[in-house]
Amino acid sequence: MAAVSVNAFAQDMLIRNATVHTAGPQGSLNASDVLVQGGVIRAVGSGLAAPAGATVVEANGRPLTPALFGGITEIGIEEVSGESATDDGALTLTQQPMWPEFDVTLAYNPASVLIPVARVEGLGFTLLGATTGGSFIAGQGAVMRLDGSADPAGPRALFIRLGSPAASLSGNSRAAQWMLLDQLVAEARGRMPSDSPHALLTPAGRATLARYLAGNGRIVVAVNRAADIRQLLRWAQRENVRIAIAGGAEAWKLAPQLAQAKVPVFVDALADLPADFDQIGATLENAARLQAAGVAVGFSQSGDASHNARKIRQLAGNAVANGLPWQDGLAGLTRVPAQAFGVDERLGTIAVGKRADLVLWTGDPLDVAHTAEQIWLDGRALPMRSRQTELRDRYLRDAGGLPRAYSY
């Protein structure tokens, strides 16, 4: 899809008689209408009148939600995971180990074929994440809307990986990660001379890290083991930084502390086995236990999240099946990530003044038996097709006397 200006094709629209799941304070509203004008939600309620010339969409009671969060992915900076030339998510430069200024959003491709693949599943935004290459300090990313926009929708986030998966990047020791973090903080705060032969950061790196240490942006930490999460909470309190946790397989063990520190946790709700020694305590009840303690719970999957972003609904549905309240399952795909990553003024809930990023579903959006019927971003009805659907249709087409796929 070609990039377009935000409201280039916005239309006045009334979605009538929907079950409106606002993901906000109003909760779910039965038999309600949503009025969209100029790409913005103007009214939510019952019996709304359609302005002259407005398109009327009859929902007939079907669910309407905000466009969903696709998780922490490389959508737009990765096309083929097995082809390094198409993957811009990690930096590996051996002559300098730490580059927090590395910003993957500069490589974002709004024409990526993965964007419509995710969008037809009801996904409207994702957190573009930097992955670990030559350093456990991976670099920066940001929220990207899947509407063809080329620029981030919100502030940058810094990505760090801790624990055994990153030990090879810190002298094969997880303890060394804290030693290195302390040195990085000392450099960024000017407690270590910039011309020291042992310095790890460039001038740009010091300035970048200093912004996060001043509270300007979220540090997203991929970590699973409870012992590492405990040290992370102590470090974040000591340095007064804003963090979020990605993964958190054993986060439930520290749920009260995470709630008190107001740290959101983005869990893989399908993690229920000890895939490694950092996940011995993995459980399907992780999200429910965190939520019960007052932790803001979102979702993000491990593995090939970019090509399988659609599975994030399954994560939320699985968490609901294991004790998470349904409304909190939806919030983990909408409001929670929008608030955590600084885009909640316009995204994440259905409310007056918010962007009209909406999805009409055939049924329960947290049940994979149902699908997105239509997605609107800024009130624009976007095509419900992708390269995957086009290939499906091509190979299912009746080709007459020719073999399938040779019908044209």
From TrEMBL:
One of its GO terms (molecular function) is hydrolase activity, acting on carbon-nitrogen (but not peptide) bonds. Pfam families: Amidohydro_1. Residues 262-365 form the Amidohydrolase-related domain. InterPro entries: Amidohydro-rel, Metal-dep_hydrolase_composite, Metal_Hydrolase, Metallo-dep_Hydrolase. This is Imidazolonepropionase. The lineage of its organism: Bacteria, Pseudomonadati, Pseudomonadota, Gammaproteobacteria, Lysobacterales.
